[in-house]
From TrEMBL:
Keywords: Coiled coil. Residues 55-109 form the F-box domain. This is F-box domain-containing protein. InterPro entries: F-box-like_dom_sf, F-box_dom. Residues 17-44 form a coiled coil.
Length: 141
């Protein structure tokens, strides 16, 4: 290869390679920033959609009554069917309402079980009793 300075060509190729690497790092940082912005915006949209849900237009007192009807008449066994607890896991709005409704926590039926951790059972019962507040208690063992 006459007339071609291979060292100069190699140097030029390495410079182009380095420039491409620098540009790629900039683009990766930009992509990362855009992905973070997209995720934040998507989360914000989800929260706004949640706030627009029709159930949000119902007063908490009505939702509280609906919760009470979901339990039905009778006593709740928190170890078998922890429905009041499940209501607190739907969203923060429902959690606040469920925790503010003492009657959801005041009717208990507990069947002694030997296969359960008694400390865990005591903790669950303590939570129900604490959340029942001043509501009259109904307990069946």
């Amino acid at each position: 290869m006459s007339g071609v300075n291979l060292h100069a060509e190699l140097y030029k190729a390495w410079e182009e390679f380095d420039e491409a690497e620098v540009e790629l790092r900039k683009l990766r940082r930009r992509i990362s920033a855009l992905e973070e912005k997209r995720d934040f915006t998507q989360s914000r949209c989800t929260n706004i959609i949640s706030l627009l849900a029709p159930i949000r237009r119902l007063p908490p007192e009505i939702i509280s009554k609906i919760f009470a009807h979901t339990l039905g008449p009778g006593l709740v066994d928190p170890l078998k069917h922890p429905l009041p607890v499940l209501l607190t896991h739907v969203c923060s709005y429902w959690r606040h309402i469920a925790l503010s409704t003492p009657t959801l926590w005041s009717s208990l039926s507990v069947e002694p079980r030997y296969d359960h951790n008694s400390a865990q059972t005591k903790q669950i019962l303590d939570e129900f009793l604490a959340r029942s507040g001043t509501a009259p208690l109904s307990i069946f063992i």
